[in-house]
C-alpha cells in the first residue's frame, strides 16, 4: 500500500459511544461512527458500565471470531475520575508479535508481573494516538526513577501494513517515550487480541480517493503487576495530570 495520507478524528462522546472510541477519515468529512457501544445500567444503587463491542463491516473470520461477535465489559464508574475500575478484569491478550528491533515479543511473558498500559493505535493518526502517548510519557516522567523502570507501556499498531518495526521505532520515541514498546505483526492476530480486551478494530481501508479510513477503539487498559489482569480503563480524554495522579497506584496494583 502506498503511503497515502490518513487519519482519524476523535468523535464526541455520546450516550451510545464508549469513551475513547475513535475513527474517521481525512479532509474534514464526517467520520464514521466507531464500532464500540456503551450503555449505562443501575446495579444495586451503583452505576455500572456494559460495553458491547462489535466490528462494523470488518471480516473477522481470520481472527477466529464470527462476524458480529461481542465482548462484554462490566465495571463501576465515578464521573469525578478518569479511570474506570472494571468489576470483571480482562485477561492479558495472548499476543506474540514483532517489536521495533524486529525481534519476537511475547506480550504475556515479557510483561508478566509488571504494571502495564496497553494501547492499540497507528502512527498515521493525526490526533488521538500521539496525544495519548504524549500524555502517558509526560506522566511517566513525574515518577521516581525506580517506578519509571517498572512501568511498561505497549503500543500495538492497528495498521501493520504501514507500521513496520522500523516505522514504529521512529515514531514512538517522538510521540511518546523511547522506553515504550511498539509492536506490529499479523492484523488478524492483533484484531483478536484487541477484541479480547473489549477494543474493536476494523481493517484500514483505502478508498478510491486515496484516503485511508481507519477505525479503532482508543482506550488504554491498565494491567496489574500482582494479578496480570486488566482492571482499569482510560478513555481518550484522559489528561497527563490524570495519568500522573493514577500511575503511582497502578504501579502497585492498587485501584486509582
Q: Summarize this, please?
A:
By secondary structure, the protein is α+β, with helices and mostly antiparallel strands. It contains six helices and 14 strands.
How would you describe what is shown here?
The protein is an alpha+beta fold and 256 residues long. Helices cover 23% and strands 31% of the residues. It contains six helices and 14 strands. The chain has helices at 107-111, 128-141, 145-150, 165-175, 187-195, 240-252, and strands at 21-24, 36-43, 46-53, 71-76, 83-91, 96-99, 104-106, 116-121, 152-157, 181-184, 201-206, 212-217, 220-223, 229-234. The strands form two sheets. It has an eleven-stranded mixed β-sheet, sandwiched between helices. The chain has a three-stranded antiparallel β-sheet with strand order 1-12-11. Strand 13 (220-223) and strand 14 (229-234) form a beta hairpin. Helix 2 packs across helix 6 (240-252). The protein is globular, with a radius of gyration of 17 Å. The chain starts with 20 loop residues before the first strand and ends with a helix. Mean pLDDT is 77; it is low at 1-77.
Low-confidence regions = 1-77
Q: How many E-type strands? A: 14
Encode the helix/strand succession as letters: EEEEEEEHEHHEHEHEEEEH
Overall pLDDT, averaged?
77
Question: Which value, in Å, is the CA radius of gyration?
Answer: 17 Å
N/C terminus separation: 42 Å
Structural class: alpha+beta
Number of helices: 6
Q: Describe the sheet with the most strands.
A: 11 strands, mixed
Task: Using the alpha-carbon principal axes, give the shape.
Answer: globular
Strand content: 25-35%
Give, in spatial order, the strands making up the sheet with the most strands. Answer: 2-3-4-5-14-13-8-9-10-6-7
Q: Percent range for helical residues?
A: 10-25%
Amino acid at each position: 500500500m502506498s503511503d497515502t495520507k490518513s487519519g482519524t478524528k476523535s468523535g464526541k462522546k455520546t450516550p451510545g459511544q464508549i469513551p475513547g472510541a475513535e475513527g474517521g477519515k481525512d479532509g474534514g468529512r464526517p467520520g464514521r461512527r466507531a464500532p464500540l457501544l456503551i450503555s449505562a445500567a443501575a446495579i444495586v444503587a451503583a452505576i455500572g458500565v456494559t460495553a458491547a463491542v462489535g466490528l462494523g463491516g470488518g471480516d473477522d473470520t481470520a481472527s477466529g471470531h464470527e462476524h458480529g461477535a461481542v465482548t462484554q465489559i462490566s465495571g463501576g464508574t465515578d464521573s469525578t475520575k478518569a479511570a474506570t475500575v472494571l468489576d470483571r478484569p480482562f485477561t492479558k491478550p495472548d499476543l506474540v508479535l514483532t517489536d521495533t528491533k524486529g525481534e519476537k515479543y511475547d506480550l504475556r511473558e515479557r510483561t508478566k508481573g509488571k504494571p502495564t498500559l496497553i494501547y492499540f493505535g497507528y502512527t498515521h493518526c493525526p490526533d488521538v494516538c500521539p496525544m495519548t502517548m504524549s500524555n502517558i510519557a509526560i506522566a511517566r516522567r513525574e515518577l521516581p526513577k525506580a517506578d519509571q523502570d517498572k512501568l511498561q507501556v505497549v503500543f500495538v499498531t492497528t495498521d501493520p501494513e504501514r507500521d513496520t518495526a522500523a516505522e514504529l521505532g521512529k515514531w514512538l520515541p517522538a510521540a511518546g517515550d523511547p522506553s515504550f514498546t511498539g509492536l506490529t505483526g499479523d492484523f488478524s492476530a492483533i484484531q483478536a487480541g484487541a477484541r479480547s480486551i473489549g477494543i474493536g478494530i476494523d481493517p484500514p481501508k483505502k478508498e478510491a480517493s486515496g484516503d485511508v479510513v481507519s477505525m479503532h477503539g482508543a482506550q488504554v487498559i491498565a494491567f496489574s503487576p500482582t494479578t496480570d489482569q486488566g482492571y482499569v480503563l482510560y478513555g481518550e480524554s484522559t489528561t497527563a495530570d490524570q495519568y500522573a495522579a493514577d500511575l503511582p497506584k497502578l504501579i502497585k496494583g492498587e485501584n486509582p
